[in-house]
Every structure is written in C-alpha cells, then in structure tokens.
Amino acid sequence: MSKINALTCVGQNDICSLRIVCTMTRDKKHELEEVDKYGNTALLKACYMGNLEAVITLLQFGANVKAVNHYGQNALTLATFAGNIDIIRELLRYCTYKDFNNSALTPALCVATMHQKWALITLFKELEDHSSEDIQTVHGLNCDDIRALFKPPKPVPQKLHKSMHL
C-alpha cells in the first residue's frame, strides 16, 4: 500500500488528511513538493481544481508558491484558469503579481483573456505597474492578439458553402 501524500489528498478533496500530511511533513518540505506526471505540486493541483481550503492549508504549511509545472503554468495561472478570485487573492499575499508573471510561460492576464474571465482581466490590469499591452506570452502574443485568435469565425457564404460539397 502506498503512503498518502499531499497530492493524493488534494485530488480526493480530503482536507482533514491534507492537514495531517502537512503536519507530519513539517520538517520535510520536499514532501509537499512531490509532483504528478504533469509536474503539478499539491498547491498547483489545488489551484487548478479551485480548492481554496487546500490552497490556504498548503500555503500555511510552506508549500512553494513559486512552483511551475512542466507546461510553464504556476499557481496564479492555474487559479486564473479555474476562475477562482479568492484563491488568486490568497496567492497574491505570498508572491507578487509581477513575480508570478515572470515565472509563467503565459501570464495570468493572458490566461484570463483566453478564457474571457472579465473580472479577472480587470483585477490583473489594476495590478499592472505599466501598460497591459506590454504583457505577452513567451510566444510574443499580447492580449489583443489572443482576443483576435478567439473571435468567432465569419460564416461561409451559402453559395460557396454548397459548392464545397460536390
């Protein structure tokens, strides 16, 4: 039988066991940083799942708020994907918005733009110390570029549409 770890507790939404695991590993911080096959720590997984209680517990026990998974996603980008503003506010108590953006392949503002999370876009723009046009992904896409990618396609004219199905 394998031992229970923080990742398992988060995956099963078992906060009671998570607190026990965190207490038992207080002197072994590396155990809180075990990763799954995607490189997610328990904190990253809790952010992705939108589990505020697990996030608070892990942060209180010293989980690495600056962890990044194999896809270049950090806690803030995953919480943004989940759309959980309470988790985002909690994370920002432990790490600056700028530091989060510097460690991710896709900044939180870009993630919010991709998923059309308007309240988060507003929050992140308020946190910017410069123009949001300067924020871009590692691929050089800014928020305007991302919005353009997600515009609905123009309808194909009916006449052209019929000729395509010969």
Automatic annotation (TrEMBL):
Organism domain of life: Eukaryota
Alphabetized UniProt keyword annotations: ANK repeat
A biological process from GO: regulation of apoptotic process
Entries under SMART domains matching the protein: ANK
Keyword presence, Metal-binding: no
ANK repeat extents: 38-70
GO cellular component, one term: nucleus
Name of the protein this chain belongs to: Uncharacterized protein
Organism annotation: Stomoxys calcitrans (Stable fly)
